[in-house]
Amino acid sequence: MPLKGGEPILANPNFTILRHNSADYRSVHMRVDQAPFQDKRVRQAVAYCIDRAALVKSLFNGAASVANDHSFAPVYVDTELANSDIPQRTQDYDKAKALLAAAGVTGFDITLTTGQYLEMPQYAVAIREYCKPVGINVNLNVMPTDQYYGSGDNQPWLVVPMGETDWAARGTVAQAIVPEFPTGALWNSAHWSDPDFDKLFADYNAELDHQKRKQLSLEIAKIQNEEVPVMISYWIAAQRATTKAVQGFPAAPDNFIDLRATWLAS
């Protein structure tokens, strides 16, 4: 039950609303193989323009939590260090301007393409407004969702210089990373490649020791946060709605439902 579009049910007292922290997110990719995003300092500058706490409030009325430009949502296991040892990125226009200056960029125009889906167009508008004070002029191209994702050889979301993608929660962080971040990944919309990341991710997947996995997750998250091939600004809470007769329905963090404990009251 998404917040955007689900307001009539969410506000209806005849329904019970179940909410759980989740790993649903929107990624905003910046193609690292095209100017001006070839320089990570430019990507970092964009990330420092974003007011994540304000997005959580304005887009979700608090039904989300801030993210930090890496894949290790707190709801996953082995993510404690990734979420405690990396400073939370917050809006900092002075830092954004300094990064652009260091990269030799005084401002630029870029088109952000997105689909007409849930809060994504509103998020795109917010990005446009947040970037204006540092001289980044973001033009918006909002497409019908089926056209944006397309099919076959016509998939705009994989080729545009800057795009927004909705990602559903996966059962594990590895399942979330596999399609988007490794070199040559099928849905690597940022066209990013980092050998150190690939090696650490392979080690993480092969490691059985919990403490070692936590340390590897920290190292992987540091690379994502530093390189910013995509911005991940927030984790969207999972919400479900049931009638009052439904009992034992799970408030789970992903889209897979275990109904073994669910029953109907007479």
Topology, please?
Elements: H1 7-10, E1 15-30, H2 40-48, H3 52-60, E2 64-66, H4 80-84, H5 93-102, E3 108-115, H6 120-131, E4 136-143, H7 145-149, E5 162-167, H8 173-177, H9 195-206, H10 210-227, E6 230-243, E7 246-247, E8 263-264
Parallel strand pairs: 3-4
Antiparallel strand pairs: 1-5, 1-6, 2-6, 7-8
Helix pairs in contact: 2-5, 9-10
Task: Label this structure with key terms.
266 residues, alpha+beta, Dipeptide-binding Protein, domain 3, four-stranded antiparallel sheet, two-stranded parallel ribbon, 10 helices, globular
What would you note in describing this structure?
The chain is an alpha+beta fold. The protein has one domain: Dipeptide-binding Protein, Domain 3 (Dipeptide-binding Protein, domain 3, Roll). 33% of the residues lie in helices and 22% in strands. It contains 10 helices and 8 strands. The strands form 3 sheets. The chain has a 4-stranded antiparallel beta sheet, covered by helices on one side. Helix 6 links the parallel strand 3 and strand 4. Helix 9 runs antiparallel to helix 10. The relative contact order is 0.24. The model has no long low-confidence stretch (mean pLDDT 95).
